[in-house]
């Protein structure tokens, strides 16, 4: 799993836990829905830390809480 895939999965997981849709998350986070949906698109590779921070603010969690899960602990090495 790539970092981008892990971020997407974590966003979906957090939305499910809080019973909110991606569109709602975008609105409460102050980002456009298209930004959130593009982060979910498997074809897109880049993820902005600033956008992740805004989404965390909308979810009322810290970046540490967001990244503190098994998804990120088991990522493969990015440098080949």
Description:
By secondary structure, the chain is mostly helical. The protein has one domain (3-69): Orthogonal Bundle (434 Repressor (Amino-terminal Domain)), CATH 1.10.260. The protein is built from 6 helices and no strands. α2 crosses α3 (33-40). The radius of gyration is 12 Å and the shape is globular.
Write the layout of secondary structure elements.
Elements: H1 3-18, H2 22-29, H3 33-40, H4 49-59, H5 63-67, H6 70-73
Helix pairs in contact: 2-3, 2-4
Topology order in helix (H) and strand (E) letters = HHHHHH
Q: SS-based structural class?
A: mainly alpha
CATH superfamily: lambda repressor-like DNA-binding domains
Proportion of helical residues: 55-70%
Describe the structure in brief.
The chain is an all-alpha fold and about 80 residues long. It contains six helices and no strands.
Notable features of this structure?
single chain, 80 residues, mainly alpha, 434 Repressor (Amino-terminal Domain), globular
């Amino acid at each position: 799993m790539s970092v981008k895939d892990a971020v997407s999965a974590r966003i979906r997981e957090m939305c499910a836990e809080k019973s909110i849709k991606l569109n709602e998350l975008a609105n409460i986070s102050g980002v456009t829905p298209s930004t959130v949906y593009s982060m979910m698109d498997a074809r897109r590779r880049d993820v902005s830390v600033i956008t992740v921070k805004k989404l965390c603010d909308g979810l009322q969690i810290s970046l540490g809480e967001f990244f503190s899960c098994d998804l990120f602990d088991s990522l493969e090495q990015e440098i080949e």
